[in-house]
């Protein structure tokens, strides 16, 4: 076997070396570009990671703030709930006190109304008593005067002419002057005392004479002659009970006491009109 020996061509080696250097330069440039790109990508990635990390830190801080606020809100809510419970408890106590006070007020108002009614009744009773007492005193004094006149009638002429009289002997009402058809203007002689009275004071009659014919008598004589009826001043006082005699109360105070003498009936026989 024969061995072949290649004789190197100097030009060929130079071209190969240049070609190799060119290839190495291209590969180096390519690697440099790749390295620069990778470095830029790494820088961009690091920037992105740093940005995301910053965002994460910010979100974490916000979350921590939210957690803190939530905890604060929880504490505040619990505090508000406790205060609400206390307020409801106080409200219930106040409501119970209000209802009790309202009940007491209603009872007190009813009691006040009852006391006011009682005061009004007592005042009315007092006014009635004072009025009756004043009327009793006035009528008793009037009766005493009339009884005193009756005691002196033995020394006087009993029968009085109507023409000589201008006022009623009992109530002192004036008779009209001249002719009048009024019933109250009529002058009537009492068949017992002979005095002249108006028709209002001579509404009673008593039996007179052997046959008991009714004879007109005045109120005072009717009281004297009839022992089975209430006294004249007593019935008249009750009838005038509600007239409100304030002037008489001034003249006759309720604290003053009067002593009435016992009247003496001078005669039980009815007088007759002289012929």
In total, the number of strands is 4
Q: What would you say the CATH architecture of the domain at 116-251 is? A: 2-Layer Sandwich
- State the CATH topology of the domain at 116-251: Herpes Virus-1
Lateral arrangement of strands in the main beta sheet: 1-2
Q: How far is the N terminus from the C terminus?
A: 223 Å
Q: Tell me, what's the shape?
A: rod-shaped
Rg (CA only): 68 Å
* Beta-strand residue fraction: 5-15%
Notable features of this structure?
mainly alpha, Herpes Virus-1, two-stranded antiparallel sheet, 4 helices, metal-binding, zinc
Topology:
Elements: H1 10-151, E1 188-189, E2 196-197, E3 204-208, E4 213-217, H2 219-225, H3 232-239, H4 246-251
Antiparallel strand pairs: 1-2, 3-4
Helix pairs in contact: 1-3
Would you mind describing this structure in some detail?
The chain is mainly alpha-helical and 275 residues long. Among the domains are: 19-48; 116-251, Herpes Virus-1. It is built from four helices and four strands; from the N terminus they run H-E-E-E-E-H-H-H. It has a two-stranded antiparallel sheet with strand order 1-2. Strands 3-4 form a two-stranded antiparallel ribbon. Strand 1 (188-189) and strand 2 (196-197) form a beta hairpin. Helix 1 (10-151) runs antiparallel to helix 3. It is rod-shaped, with a radius of gyration of 68 Å. It starts with 9 loop residues before the first helix and ends in a 24-residue tail after the last helix. It holds the Pfam family Rab5-bind.
